[in-house]
Write a structure and sequence with these properties.
Elements (H helix, E strand, L loop, with lengths): L1 H11 L15 H12 L1 H21 L5 E8 L10 H15 L16 E12 L1 H68 L6 H34 L24 H11 L1 H21 L5 E12 L9 E10 L7 H67 L5 H36 L15
Antiparallel strand pairs: 1-2, 2-3, 3-4
Helix pairs in contact: 1-5, 2-5, 3-5, 5-6, 5-8, 5-10, 7-9, 8-9, 9-10
Length: 459
C-alpha cells in the first residue's frame, strides 16, 4: 500500500511544471534530439542530398569558366582516298620541265584526312543566356533541397520527442501496476485467511485473485509496449535497439507555459520550412522561364586551337598550326518549342503560387488545431488531479474502515480499482498534454533546430 500511495504522491508534483514561466535553454530531451539529428540514417540521407545539390551548383558555375581539351587522332588510310597530290604533282612536273631542273617535288602525298592531328583547344563562352539561367535554376533547387532537409529535421525532432514521451508514459503505467500488485497480493492472502477462519465465502478469494490477474495481465501488456516504444526510439536515434533509455523527470522536459495562439501563428508563418521550400521552388521555375526566354537570344563563344598535323608525329615549326574560332549561334525558329517551354514555366509558377496560398491556410489550421488540443489537454490535467485526490482519499477511508471491520472486501476492491484507474488516468492525461505540446511545436515551428547537429538551416 505504501508503494502505491508513494507513487501517486509523485504524480501530484507534476502540476508544478505547468506554472513555470520558461524552459531551460537545453534539456535532456534536447540532448536526445541532438543525438538523432547527428545519427539518424534518414537524416544522413538528406544531408547527402544537400551535398549533391551543392555539387550541381558548382557544376553549373563551372560553365562560366574556359575549358581546355586535348584532342589526338591517328588515321591509317587504305583504298581509294582523296589525294590532293594527284592535282599538285602534275603541275609541279610541268614547272620543272619549263625550268629544266627539279625545282618542285612531284611525289607529294596529300591524302585526306592527314594521318595524324593533335590539338589543344581552349574554349570560352562570351555570351550564353542559358548558362546564367541554368545557374539560377541549380541555386534555387539547392536551396529547396536545403529546405527539404530542414523539413525532415523538424519532423524527426517531433518523432524523437513523441517516441520518448510514449516510452516514458508506458513506463509510468508499468510502475503504477508494479506498485499495485503487492497490495492485491496482500488482499488475496487476507481473503484466504478469512475463508479458512470461516468468516468469508470462497467467492471472496476468487474475486481477489481475478483482480490480481487482471492487473498482472495489464502490467505484462504495458511491459511489451514499453519495450516496443524503446526500440522505436532507439531506431530513430540509430542506436542498438536494446539500448537503455534514461527516464527524464517531468520538470526537466522543458514544456513551459502555453504560448498565445497569435504568437504561434506568426512563428509558423515565418518559420515553417515548407513555405521556404515552395518559395525556392518558385525561384527555380522563374529561372526556368528565363532559361526558355534566353533561347530567343544569340550565343557567342570563342575557341583557340593549337597543335600539329601531318603524315607522322614531328614537333617542329613546319608542322604546328593555330586557329582562332568565333562562333555565333542564333535560334531563329524551332517550331514554337521555346514559346511552349515559356508557357509551361509560367503555368508552373502560377500553380506554385496557389500551392503557397493553400499551404499557408493549412499551416494556420494546423497551428490552431494543435493549440486547441494542447489547451484542452492542459485543462484535463487539473480535472485528472481532482479525480486522483478524491479517489486516493476514498481509498484511504475504505481501507481504514476495512481494517476496523466496517467495510466489506467488495467495497475495498472497488475503492482500489477507482484509485488505480484515477492514477492511470493521471499518467495518460499528463503525457497526452506533453505529446500535444510536441505536435504544437511541430505545427508552429517553434523549436529551434539550430541547437541540434550541424547542417540545419544552412544554404
Amino acid at each position: 500500500m505504501a508503494r502505491a500511495v508513494a507513487f501517486v504522491a509523485g504524480l501530484a508534483v507534476a502540476p508544478a511544471l505547468l506554472a513555470q514561466d520558461g524552459a531551460p535553454k537545453s534539456t535532456p530531451l534536447d540532448a536526445l534530439v541532438e543525438t538523432g539529428l547527428r545519427q539518424n540514417l534518414s537524416r544522413r540521407q538528406q544531408l547527402l542530398a544537400v551535398e549533391q545539390a551543392d555539387a550541381a551548383v558548382r557544376e553549373a558555375r563551372g560553365l562560366y569558366l574556359p575549358s581546355a581539351t586535348l584532342n589526338a587522332r591517328y588515321t591509317e588510310l587504305a583504298g581509294n582516298t582523296v589525294d590532293l597530290g594527284t592535282l599538285i604533282n602534275p603541275a609541279f612536273g610541268a614547272l620543272n620541265q619549263l625550268l629544266q631542273r627539279p625545282a618542285f617535288p612531284t611525289n607529294i602525298d596529300m591524302r585526306l584526312p592527314l594521318r595524324q592531328e593533335t590539338t589543344v583547344r581552349l574554349a570560352q563562352p562570351i555570351f550564353q543566356p542559358s548558362i546564367i539561367a541554368a545557374n539560377r535554376v541549380q541555386s534555387a533547387l539547392a536551396d529547396a533541397q536545403g529546405a527539404q532537409r530542414d523539413v525532415q529535421a523538424r519532423q524527426l525532432t517531433a518523432d524523437i520527442k513523441s517516441g520518448y514521451l510514449t516510452f516514458a508514459k508506458v513506463q509510468q503505467v508499468v510502475a503504477l501496476y508494479d506498485s499495485t500488485l503487492p497490495l492485491l497480493d496482500e488482499q488475496v492472502r487476507v481473503s484466504e485467511r478469512l475463508v479458512q477462519a470461516g468468516k468469508a465465502t470462497p467467492d471472496m478469494i476468487l474475486r481477489a485473485r481475478a483482480e490480481r490477474s487482471d492487473v498482472q495481465q495489464r502490467r505484462d501488456e504495458s511491459v511489451q509496449l514499453a519495450e516496443a516504444s524503446r526500440e522505436v526510439l532507439n531506431l530513430l536515434l540509430n542506436r542498438p535497439l536494446d539500448t537503455e533509455v534514461a527516464i527524464i523527470p517531468d520538470s526537466a522536459l522543458g514544456f513551459d507555459s502555453l504560448p498565445a495562439l497569435d504568437v504561434l501563428r506568426r512563428e509558423a508563418a515565418s518559420g515553417r520550412e515548407e513555405l521556404r521550400q515552395v518559395a525556392h521552388a518558385r525561384r527555380a521555375v522563374s529561372a526556368q522561364e528565363r532559361l526558355a526566354q534566353g533561347s530567343f537570344l544569340p550565343s557567342l563563344s570563342v575557341a583557340v586551337d593549337y597543335g600539329v598535323q601531318g603524315k607522322d608525329y614531328r614537333l617542329d615549326r613546319s608542322r604546328d598550326f593555330a586557329a582562332l574560332t568565333v562562333a555565333v549561334s542564333w535560334n531563329l525558329f524551332n517550331g514554337g518549342q521555346d514559346a511552349a517551354r515559356i508557357q509551361q514555366a509560367s503555368l508552373d509558377g502560377r500553380r506554385l503560387e496557389l500551392q503557397r496560398q493553400e499551404l499557408e491556410q493549412r499551416i494556420a489550421l494546423d497551428v490552431t488545431t494543435a493549440w486547441q488540443g494542447a489547451a484542452v489537454a492542459r485543462s484535463a490535467i487539473r480535472t485528472a488531479d481532482d479525480r486522483l485526490q478524491s479517489a486516493k482519499r476514498t481509498f484511504e477511508l475504505v481501507r481504514r474502515k476495512q481494517e476496523e471491520g466496517a467495510a466489506s472486501q467488495l467495497e475495498f476492491l472497488d475503492a482500489r480499482t477507482a484509485f488505480t484507474s484515477a492514477a492511470l488516468n493521471r499518467v495518460i492525461t499528463r503525457y497526452d498534454y506533453y505529446l500535444r505540446r510536441v505536435a504544437l511545436e511541430r505545427a508552429a515551428a517553434s523549436y529551434n533546430l539550430a541547437r541540434g547537429a550541424g547542417g540545419v538551416g544552412r544554404r
